[in-house]
Amino acid sequence: MPGTSVETVSIPLPNVTVQSPSRRGEPWRVTLSRFIFGRGSTLKAAKAELARQITVATETVNVEPAFARDDDGSLIVAIDRPWGVEEYRITDDGWKNVGTYDRDMRTPAEWLASTHHYTPVPPRR
Predict the structure, then answer these.
(1) d(CA 45, CA 29)
(2) In this structure, is the dihedral angle defined by the CA atoms of residues 43, 48, 53 and 54, taken in order, positive or negative?
(3) What confidence tens digit (pLDDT) does each residue in 48-72 have?
(4) Residue 66: exposure state from Cβ atoms within 10 A (0-12, 13-18, ≥19)
(5) What region, left, alpha or beta, does residue 15 occupy, with left being phi > 0 and alpha being psi -120 to 50 degrees?
(6) Worst-scoring range by mean pLDDT, 7-21, 24-38, 84-98?
(7) Angle at CA of residue 90, ends 64 and 87, nearest 5°
(8) Following DSSP, what letter does each residue of 56-118 receive, concatenated?
């Protein structure tokens, strides 16, 4: 097969809003949704950050949630989101978000395994 040609094209996304700085020194903001947005010192930088956030969102959609038991018997669930790993505590009284942590190179299961008073629940296969 002869050489392959690659072309970069712009794809307009619906419902993207652009907010220019209202004062000098404030960043541009390009927003797709409440949680997916880009900020930058220029419009180009804000768009690049939005593209990075969309990429992260597509990467996290297939990451399985992780489960653990706390020493007090609570069930802990960690879910990978584009904005970080969300951790929930579930008890007989209900559930609550107990933290959202910066995304780093750890999976939700690795997050839970690194907490000394959690016992990871292995995934069902």
Answers:
(1) 9
(2) positive
(3) 999 888 888 787 777 889 999 999 9
(4) buried
(5) left
(6) 7-21
(7) 50
(8) HHHHHTTPPPEEEEETTS-EEEEEEETTEEEEEEEETTEEEEEEEE---S--HHHHHHTSTTE
